[in-house]
Structure formats: C-alpha cells, structure tokens
Amino acid sequence: RSTTIFALVNALGRRDRARGLELLDTLCREGEYLPLALAFLSTQFRLALVSKESGLRSSQQIVGHFSRAGVPMWSSRAEQIYQTVGKFSKEQLERGLKLIFAADRDLRSARPDDRIVMERFVLELTR
Known about the structure:
- This protein is an all-alpha fold.
- Helices cover about 80% and strands about 0% of the residues.
- The radius of gyration is 14 Å and the shape is elongated.
C-alpha cells in the first residue's frame, strides 16, 4: 500500500494525470487513507518550491542545499523533487499547495465521497 501512495505522489509530481488517476483508483479500492498521500505531496511541493526559489538546477544541488539546512535528503527523493521543479512553474507550485490544502480540508468535512474530492484534485493539479 505505501508503495502505491509513493507512486501516486511521484506521478503527480511529474504531472502524469493518467497514472495519477490509475493509482488513485487502486488506493480507493484498497480503502487507503487518502490524506496521507496529500501529506507526502505537500512536502514534495514545498521542497520543490524552495528549490525553485533557490535556483537549484540539479538533484545534487537539492541534496546539498537541504542537507546543509538539516533536512533529510537522499538522492532518489532529490530526483523526484527535481522532476517536480521541472514540471511546475513557481506559480503552479504555489497553486498546487493551495489545491492540496483545499483537498485536505474537503476530505475532513462533510462531502459526498473522498474519491470525488481526490479525483477533482488530480484533475486540477495536472491541468
């Protein structure tokens, strides 16, 4: 299950709508706790935004920057962040964080279905 959550975060970080929706379907059928995926994605987007604002141009620079700041960073995580930096503009990353917040809020409030909230989120994030 956790592998599927990480795969969803990775797909959305690459703006891969089709794979994101496919993985979301798997998570929903397995009864996964969807706010967990949003928490991981929020971290990835925040780190990508800092990387973009800091002008980091490679996964190695990302590792160095965050390691010096005391943030645990390993090469595969840095590569995912670097891919996200390449797929989203600064404005899109900021918008993505707002979408994550809204989806998280909607998952916690009275609503029709978690799946609908998350599908809408994936479609908005990857448009």
